[in-house]
């Protein structure tokens, strides 16, 4: 009896091909659930949130999804997924440099972390863009010339040339060493070029006097500009 009569060629070729496909699939990267362990500089270190697997997956430090111009303050325990790329990412992330080719990357070596929403997040207005961080929010230009810093205790705005607030036809302008307040009720400004403390104090006292005598807000659209109204019973002081 020949070997061909003992072995089913078609069945064995099918099993051979199936095993090869499984081997390749095991080498390919997979989209997996992951939890942030730490934010390491501009990268995040994550652990894989899996159980009942026959091997232990190590923690990996990988790029975080998102552009340079918005930085996400990832915290320990934040949940998301890792997404594998089909090519080497070191040149894109800066973790290894070089240029990719079409050589399949090793498993777990070309991952990007992507946060996903969670039912336990704080509820916010779905029609409004909401930005918050554990310790506040920073807005700045690329060189930090102008900054807006919001913390749980304060708001600090720093600008090199001018800070201006416009409410309707009223404009408050602050420049280096000077200020002005203009509106339908009149104009008030520090027109002196002197930086004498006495003169600056006099200018500040004039501003407070003007504010306390032109409080808007009579409950009917804020049209009363003749003096303090019942909607504001206090007084602005230095």
Written description of the protein model:
It is a single chain. The chain is an alpha+beta fold. The protein has a domain at 28-115: OB fold (Dihydrolipoamide Acetyltransferase, E2P), CATH 2.40.50.230. The chain is built from four helices and twelve strands; from the N terminus they run ααββββαββββββββα. The chain has helices at residues 3-6, 9-27, 90-93, 197-213, and strands at residues 32-40, 43-48, 60-63, 79-84, 111-115, 137-140, 147-150, 155-158, 162-167, 170-175, 178-183, 186-189. It has a five-stranded antiparallel sheet, with no helix packed on it. Strand 7 (147-150) and strand 8 form a beta hairpin. It is elongated. The N and C termini lie far apart (109 Å). Residues 192-200 and 217-236 have low confidence and may be disordered.
What's a quick, concise take on this entry?
The chain is of the alpha+beta class and 238 residues long. 18% of the residues lie in helices and 27% in strands.
Labels describing this entry:
238 residues, 5-stranded antiparallel beta sheet, 4-stranded antiparallel beta sheet, 18% helix, elongated, disordered C terminus
Overall pLDDT score: 82
**Rg over alpha carbons:** 32 Å
**Portion in strands:** 25-35%
Described by the principal axes of the CA atoms, the overall outline is elongated
| Number of strand elements | 12
What strand line-up does the widest sheet have? 3-2-1-4-5
Quickly count the helices.
Answer: 4
Distance between the termini: 109 Å
- Please describe the biggest sheet, giving its number of strands, its sense, and whether it closes into a barrel: 5 strands, antiparallel
CATH superfamily of the domain at 28-115: Gp5 N-terminal domain
Derived structural class: alpha+beta
CATH topology title of the domain at 28-115: OB fold (Dihydrolipoamide Acetyltransferase, E2P)
Q: Please identify, by name, the CATH architecture of the domain at 28-115.
A: Beta Barrel
Uncertain segments: 192-200, 217-236
The CATH class of the domain at 28-115 turns out to be Mainly Beta
Q: What fraction, in percent, of the residue positions are helical?
A: 10-25%
Give the helices and strands as they follow along the chain.
HHEEEEHEEEEEEEEH
């Amino acid at each position: 009896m020949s070997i061909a009569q003992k072995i089913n060629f078609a069945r064995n070729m099918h099993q051979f091909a199936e095993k090869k496909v499984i081997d390749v699939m095991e080498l390919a990267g997979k989209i997996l659930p992951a939890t942030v362990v730490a934010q390491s500089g501009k990268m995040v270190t994550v652990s894989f949130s899996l159980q009942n697997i026959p091997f232990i997956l190590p923690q990996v430090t990988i790029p975080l999804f998102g552009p340079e111009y918005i930085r996400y303050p990832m915290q320990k325990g934040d949940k998301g997924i890792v997404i594998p790329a089909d090519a080497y990412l070191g040149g894109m992330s800066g973790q290894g440099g070089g240029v990719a080719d079409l050589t399949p990357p090793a498993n777990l070596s070309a991952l990007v972390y992507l946060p996903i929403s969670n039912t336990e997040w704080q509820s916010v207005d779905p029609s409004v863009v909401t930005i918050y961080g554990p310790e506040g929010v920073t807005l700045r230009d690329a060189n930090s010339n102008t900054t807006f810093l919001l913390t749980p205790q304060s708001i600090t705005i720093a600008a090199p040339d001018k800070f201006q607030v416009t409410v309707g036809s009223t404009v408050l302008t602050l420049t280096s060493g000077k200020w002005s307040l203009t509106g339908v009720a009149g104009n008030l400004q520090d027109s002196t070029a002197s930086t004498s403390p006495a003169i600056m104090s006099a200018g500040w006292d004039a501003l407070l006097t003007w504010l306390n005598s032109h409080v808007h807000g009579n409950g009917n659209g804020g049209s009363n500009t003749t003096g303090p109204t019942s909607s504001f019973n206090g007084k602005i002081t230095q």
